[in-house]
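Subject: Protein entry, chain in single-letter code together with its fold tokens

Category: Structural biology, sequence-to-fold work with a learned token vocabulary.

Notation: Tokens come from a learned vocabulary of local backbone shapes, not from coordinates.

Start of record: The labelled sequence and token lines come straight after this line.
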Amino acid sequence: MSASFDPITPRPAPIKTEGLVPWIRTNLFADWKSALTTVIIIALAVIYLPALINWAVLQAVFSTDADACQAARGTGACWGAIAEKYRLVIFGRYPYAEQWRPLVATSLMLGLLVASCTRPLWNKWLVVLWVVVLAAFFVLMRGGWFGLTEVTTDQWGGLPLTIMLATLSIVFAFPLAVLVALGRRSDLPAIRTFCTIYVELVRGVPLISVLFMASFMFPLFMPQGVTIDVLLRVLVGITLFAAAYMAEVIRGGLQAIPNGQVEAAQSLGMSYWQTQGKIVLPQALALVVPGIMNNFISIFKDTSLVTIVSLYELTGSTGLAFNSDADWRPFKIEAYLFITAIYFVFCFAMSRYSLWIEKQLNRSKTR
């Protein structure tokens, strides 16, 4: 009896998953909903993008000529307004001849932030670097030392003030939020009640109210002749406000840790703080990285509200630069697009760094 050969039906070739076309197919046309959304966005771009390019580039005025900008008004953007007013937008009311000082101070602060986000530099010397850079920042901004002219804090403004308020608020709010989150889960009723009242009280009012209280109401309760700098009061207000919101994010991470891990640590003779510092908090914080970074971004953007207490940060200095000049006042839209780009760069950088941290944590979990 002769054997018969039945060939196996050939299988289709594997779908290519790398390259431009697979990326477009996966991300833009994965299903009918995604495809419809992509088509709508493309249609809107075809309709409105040419007019936007014409206004922003082709018909725009780039020279610092107010008459040319007025002639192009309504048909082209006036980017010359940015070239004319950028120093007042970036540095606020800081004395013109001394603006090299906030430039150097802000560069040092940004360099410190980049160093703090670089993993090989995470060692004890980073703490020393923080102390040195912060001291240099305030010496440069305030003056009165090393022959520098003294500049009071009410003249600080623009991007340096925004970065300083956001950075210090985040640095001070994060450890406070951790303590408050632990306090809300404490077995001691007094501590738990105090932390709960603090969180609910702060979350029940808008940040503008907190800034108003810190700036105008708090000095009324101080003894006669005792004054606290308005910048310090605002910094404390933003820190307390941010810590209350961040504490709830961290508390969510703490609740996600099984009690069995705490009991196992206790069975090994670990103290409460050893258990929290080595077992619970590292896992809890890893779970809520997106929420924490969302709070950081919110803090950075909320600094724009300090204008209400006459501190002209980036947004406030923009209004100050253009509202006081009738020739350039009609071109505030270009100025606000300019600072929008600045806010976007910083917020986008923070979000990308958050994604990098998540990838590092996920890689450690798969080992």
